[in-house]
Queue: 4 jobs
Job 1
Amino acid sequence: KKQQKMAEFLVYNRVSISDIENIVVWNEGIKERVKKIAASLNVTIPTISFEEGPRWHYYTNFMNNGRKSCSPGPKETNQAFKNALTKIHSRTQKISYEFNSLDELITTLRTNISNINYTNELVGLHSENALHRETVAEHTLTVISNCAINKYYLRLNNRSKIIVELAAFLHDIGKGPKSRWPDGTQKVD
């Protein structure tokens, strides 16, 4: 059951309207606006749903008397993104990097996954996860192999392929270091 609630994915450039099963809106007025926009774009839209009266949120902010959603809207999400970029930019001005470029990093990882500390910590690390019979490093290499034959990956330009491959190399680094796990086996939350 838990696995059904979990997902790992990357969205490249956009999500197609055909990938959406349901649009949730706050009221009938917004529903009509969505319909008008769709009609003006000559797009068939999925089901539009909303609840009248007091609305139940799946993620309720109880620090605000339970009257506000913890799920931010597009303006809040955009502002949080801009704030994060500003903070990252201010910190990166003071950092020296181990690799001069992403190309150098990916070449190092392709040569041997244990060539950098973060991924070396995955080598020999076993997982309690019944879905993973491999070590975490072996699983990482399987993910990379699966990306390389994926039809969406194959359509990407070379730069985007490198970024996806780096994401695959690094997607489980939070499971290390090995020293975190007394018996050398990563526990499943």
Note: Strands lie at 22-24, 47-49, 60-61, 68-69, 126-127, 185-186.
Job 2
Amino acid sequence: RRIYSRYEITRKLNNRGYPENIIVQLIFWLENNNYIDDELFAEMWAQFRLQNKPIGRYKLNQELRIKGIKQDIIQKVIDKTYKEINELTLAQNLIKEKIVSSEIKNIKIDPKKIYSFLLRRGFSCEVAKIIYNKLNNF
């Protein structure tokens, strides 16, 4: 089982029809007994995403906002996560996998598509440009 953010639990309980006062009391109890910790949730989500389907800081920010995490926690987690892992290296490893996969399928790599792919994955324009230029010069 995975852990949930405060917002996700609140939404689930609302969807199941629980009264608002019960939800507030339950969330309060869960937080006081350390069953809910949005900062821990955000850290675990960031690690999970980077290990399984690497994304850039912009996409991670967006995903955590959707999960109801406060912006100050998001910024703290993003700073910590990308301090430990270089975003350029992460993007390069992702593209290496894509290149190997396309070579096996005998497909030509289009640097413009790689650039767009990196932007969709939440990497910065600077990181995408560096990789685009490397592929164009290759």
Note: The chain has two domains: 6-84, 87-137.
Job 3
Amino acid sequence: NEAKKWLEWLIASDSGREFIVNECKFIPTIKGINPPDVQLANETIDYMFKNLTYPWVQGYWPASWETHLGNLLQDYCGGARTRQQVIEEFNRTWLALVN
């Protein structure tokens, strides 16, 4: 309940919206909130409108994928698996998680 109240304050109130922009310096993803007027935000928005950015795809990954991926990459870096073994396990694990 407290989290919901905080989110409502953050998104619905003027002070919450100002916090997002002025304190956090975030580029808001909420319609009606203008981004901060700082160089990084301005250049990021410029890149977005020119389609020079990549999407944030982690939200589409299956649950626990990051853990599996991290373990596979650690095995590779530590010499416990070859590149080919990692690729094969990568594919096997991905298919098991999405099916």
Note: The longest helix spans residues 83-98.
Job 4
Amino acid sequence: MNLVLEILTPMHIGNGDVLSPYSDYIYKDGQIYYINHQKLEDFIFKLDNASSLIDKFVDIIKKQASGNQSSKYKLENFFEANNLDIKEFTDKIVDCNTDIKNKQILKCIYTGSRPYIPGSTLKGAIRTSLIYGYLKRNSYNLNEIISIWKQNKYSYIGQDIFGKFSRDIMKFLQVSDTEPFSDTDIEIIETYRVDIESGKTKNPVVFECLKRNLSTKFSMTSKGKKNYHHLEDDFDYLYEQNEAVIFDYINDFFEDAIKREISELKSKYKGKGENPFLNIISFYEQLLNEIMEFKQNKNGAVLRIGAGKTFFENTINNIFSKNEFEEIKKIKKIKNNNPFPKTRTVVVDCEIIKNSLGWIKIYKEE
């Protein structure tokens, strides 16, 4: 099945790399200039004073990286002092939502020079939804799930449902990587962790993100053969041409997660003044409407991937009762915070919470 993927809020899927503010980029007038070290090096080595310039460049990096407050001479000053046009030594120039003040930037995942969304990321979110749906539609034994957790270092990926290793029937579901985006489809977003009771922000993190309203394509293909593999009825979505059934599972999972989140954001805030999460609550209510429409038409789903997901959007724990979850928290040694989780990752603009990260919708290509 060929699908369209549309990005609803800024999205970050990391590759483990970071951009250093001391050598990799320059922030200027709301934009990030990515320094091309090879271009700069090639240019400098052609100059008569190459050795002196390189020493100056290295000295700036050392002083800035060490937090030397006595030196206000920054990488940008190096270009200005030597009459170098920054634009001539950059790979690209990217918009940034705020002055990120010498913070490192977490890079997103690329194929070559173009960002993309791995099929493994999408399949992981789909798998969690399918496990949740199976347990919701059938009875479950909490003690058995806890036993599996303990045997697998507290990792539960539905081993008792889908099977282990080579016997895992999810091998019949193939999810491709998306088609790559353009390298200009990136923006730099500073996010904060916000306490949902007090509204106070902390721990800013800066991400490379794919922009909102972008779209791309990928495929989700079931490979099971009805007259050969004889799967149980609960897994009929793994038969050829049955992929659309999976939309129901994804929508059910994220509908429950969103409803829980709206309730938490509305009820837990105890700070002064207006609830700071109103923009996100309003957006989530719109998502519920989209999910309802997808359920009626059976042609797509809403889901969340990448950075910013909450505990309950990343696990099946929303299925458990309050008492069951308290038991799980004790066994897994999860901090007994109330509310749990206590903070959310959000995008803040002019001290107003604007967005959360990672929401997408997928639907059949017409």
Note: The chain has two domains: 2-15+112-185+192-364, 21-103.
